[in-house]
Amino acid sequence: MYLCRMNIPENISAALEKQGIHTLNDMQLASCASLKERDELILLAPTGSGKTLGFLLPLLDLLDSGNTHVQALIITPTRELALQIEQVFKNLGTTFKVNTTYGGHSMQTERHNFLHPPAVLIGTPGRLTDHLRRENIDLSQTKALVLDEFDKSLEMGFQEDMAFIIQQLTSVKQRILVSATDLDEIPAFTGIQNAVKLNFLTVSKPEIQAFRVVAKDTEKPEVLLDLLCGFKNEPAIIFCNHRDTVERISDFLTQTGVVNVNFHGGLEQDERERALIKFRNGSADYLVTTDLAARGLDIPEIPHVIHYQLPHQEAAFVHRNGRTARQGASGTMWVIHTETDRLPDYLPEIPLKQIPQNQPLPHLPDWKTLYFGGGKKDKINKVDIVGFLSKIGQLKPADIGLISVLDYSCLVAVRSSSVNKALPLIRDQKIKGKKIKIGIAR
Questions:
Q1: Residue 222: CB partners within 8 Å, gap ≥ 6?
Q2: What are the backbone dihedrals phi and psi of residue 178, each rounded to the nearest 5 degrees, phi first?
Q3: Distance (Å, whole) CA 410 – CA 372
């Protein structure tokens, strides 16, 4: 295997190749090489560039299977990013335990997990601080620290929590700071003093076509609808500045027959997870969101980004646009504004586009999401779900899409044309000897 020739252990190489990763990109190679020579790294790379592997692979060299303490700590600003990193680590197929800790997750479950500390702990600043103050976990033996999406953590006001956490790390040898923007100054509380800086932010410019659409003051929702109708069901992220706008636009689209999901910080954790899963698995082609989804989430290959409202800061504008044209793909960026809107100074010259009206609505998604009321804590895994749906639900492999197994539930994409046939067959059946709730996910 090519990856084995790059000094990546054979079991890790096999796991990567199974995911279709046959070689590392330049950023990942540079990161691995730098951390073999130095203990401090500042890694600057855009969202979607694969930087998670860029810092996880070097961490593996530090992990000791005989060590029963938390050996590596990864601090991230959002629960979604924490879960994403956890999944990437699990996909590496190591024998090391990994756990996440974040607000909205069960404190009791997390405390139970810490009875046998994970080798790698991933958490948000607030929840980590809470556990440390309660003395639920000991980080005094932790050797490696990763500050992922550090610039976003600063934006969200986590400086004090991060400073407190890092003070507890008395044995850290390796420090990695990851950011999607170049910082003028690295705060002293990070402990980073002599880092190698790898800047991959300007290596390649994405191929984004940009357009403006002008609407009358009272017709922005209708113009948005016309725009989506022209996309022919190609996925799009619709950015708004405020939670109430997100919900209002999402409700408007739903009432017109356009399947979408909304995502913002005011939703409960399970609602946010469910929305992202539906968007990823094709059950909804459109995500209406605040800047919470601008980065730090695993949402690949989005052809269109729409600014229903323009952000106040240029940095937010750039991060939103980073959701399209990723990893060599092309994409489009759309700005919808009214005739009376004052456009921000950062906005470049963008050509005006006329959108056809009265086009057919997007057709319903090809997939629907089934909810299973049991998950990891019930010892249910993806193989169980596939077997259950194939044998009991009489579904073909092509009818089963993305499967997401959570702690206490599973969300499974099933081809829309097969859902009504399968549901009566599986609704009252047992899985792993246990009868659980099964139905269309809300």
A1: 215
A2: -115, 135
A3: 5
pTM for the complete prediction?
A: 0.73
Do 164 and 275 sit in the same domain of this protein? no
Question: Mind listing the pLDDT tens digit for each residue in 394-407?
Answer: 999 999 999 999 88
Residue 138 and residue 32 share a domain: yes
Spatial strand order in the sheet of 98-101: 98-101, 120-123, 72-75, 144-147, 174-179, 40-44, 196-199
Q: What is the dihedral of CA 376, 379, 381, 386, to 10 degrees?
A: -130
Q: How far is CA 73 from CA 76, 174, 242, 389, in A?
A: 10, 10, 33, 38
- Residues 226, 183 within the same domain: no
Residue 433 is which amino acid? G
pLDDT tens digits, residue range 314-343?
989 988 988 886 655 678 999 999 988 989
- Structural domain includes residue 344: no
Q: What is the pLDDT of residue 224?
A: 97
For residues 271 and 371, give the distance between their C-alpha atoms in angstroms, rounded to a whole number. Answer: 13
What's the rounded Cα separation, in Å, for the pair 437 and 370?
10
Q: How far apart are CA 227 and CA 172, in angstroms?
A: 51
Q: Provide the 3-class DSSP secondary structure of residue 75.
A: strand
Domain containing residue 80: 2-199
In contact, 212 and 353? CB cutoff 8 Å: yes
Bridge partner list, 372 = 410, 438
Tell me, yes or no, whether 184 and 257 share the same domain.
Answer: no
Q: Indicate if 389 and 307 belong to the same structural domain.
A: no
